[in-house]
From TrEMBL:
<dbReference type="InterPro" id="IPR013783">
    <property type="entry name" value="Ig-like_fold"/>
</dbReference>
<feature type="signal peptide">
    <location>
        <begin position="1"/>
        <end position="17"/>
    </location>
</feature>
<dbReference type="InterPro" id="IPR013162">
    <property type="entry name" value="CD80_C2-set"/>
</dbReference>
<dbReference type="InterPro" id="IPR036179">
    <property type="entry name" value="Ig-like_dom_sf"/>
</dbReference>
<keyword id="KW-0732">Signal</keyword>
<protein>
    <recommendedName>
        <fullName>CD80-like immunoglobulin C2-set domain-containing protein</fullName>
    </recommendedName>
</protein>
<keyword id="KW-1015">Disulfide bond</keyword>
<feature type="domain" description="CD80-like immunoglobulin C2-set">
    <location>
        <begin position="145"/>
        <end position="221"/>
    </location>
</feature>
<dbReference type="Pfam" id="PF08205">
    <property type="entry name" value="C2-set_2"/>
</dbReference>
């Protein structure tokens, strides 16, 4: 019985045709940077396999096709956006297995599938790619206060896809976690371009934040690894008003001190 099992297993290995070993699709690329990206489809086929067809799909639509011995074709949204001369292997059955996209933009983000078939077999593998747009601006500022609390508002404009904003103040030492400020208001608007503008307003008790503390707003675009931070020094509103009201006196005092030095 053991011998029969081994023989059947070996027969299955012999019969097996196409196998996609792996595909490489960048998880995230920046929009409109004049740089190309390569989507690689690495597969194995038997030497006697015939009628090879390699296709790339984007969100279930065929965007690239190679049927040897013909040249590859870019279709649909990828027409005129692929370098059809790109060769990824010296093997004539592997030469045009990969797709080099010129200057990716947000409209070609999504799920990519490499589909390989022959007369006897087929296989496919899928991965997603995000094309992101960094923010046009990121601003952090005081946005009102009471006797007990002060608010900080952070605004990011024209980002894609929708970002995540958090506001926090510096930790006191390396063993503490970040001191996140409580969000009291959040708004998101989708622009005609498809990009997002996001605003978050946070609040903290005045006795929980010291004058001179650093407050940060951190922007993250999920799934991309992109992080941007805006920071500001916090001073209580009364201190700010006092400094503004007595600016001339403070300047004269500073000049006097410098003269004595």
């Amino acid at each position: 019985m053991f011998c029969v099992t081994v023989i059947l297993f070996k027969l299955l290995l012999v019969i097996e045709g196409i196998q996609i070993n792996y595909i490489k699709v960048p998880p995230a690329v920046q929009n409109n940077t004049d740089q190309s990206v390569i989507l690689e489809c690495n597969y194995s086929i038997r030497p006697d396999d015939s009628e090879l067809v390699v296709k790339w799909y984007l969100n279930d639509a065929v965007v690239y096709q190679w049927i040897p011995p013909h040249k590859p074709q870019a279709l649909g949204i990828m027409k005129d956006r692929v370098n059809l001369s790109y060769v990824s292997s010296d093997d004539p059955k592997m030469a045009y297995r990969s797709m080099q996209i010129i200057n990716p933009t947000t409209n070609i983000a999504g799920e990519y599938k490499c589909f390989v078939s022959t007369f006897t077999d087929e296989d496919f593998s899928m991965k997603s790619m995000i094309v992101f747009v960094p923010e046009k601006s990121l601003e952090l500022f005081h946005s009102g206060h009471t006797n007990q609390k002060i608010n900080f508002t952070c605004t990011a404009t024209e980002v894609y896809p929708e970002p995540k904003l958090t506001v926090f103040k510096d930790k006191k030492d390396e063993f503490e976690n970040r001191n996140y400020l409580q969000a009291v208001e959040w708004s998101t608007s989708r622009l005609p371009t498809g990009r997002y503008s996001v605003t978050i307003t946070t609040s903290i008790l005045l006795n929980k934040i010291a004058a001179g503390s650093l407050v940060h707003c951190e922007l993250k675009i999920p799934g991309t690894g992109y992080v941007k931070r805006k920071s500001m020094l916090y001073y209580p509103p009364k201190s700010i008003h006092y400094m503004q009201r007595h600016r001339k006196q403070l300047c004269l005092l500073l000049l006097t001190c410098l003269c004595f030095v």
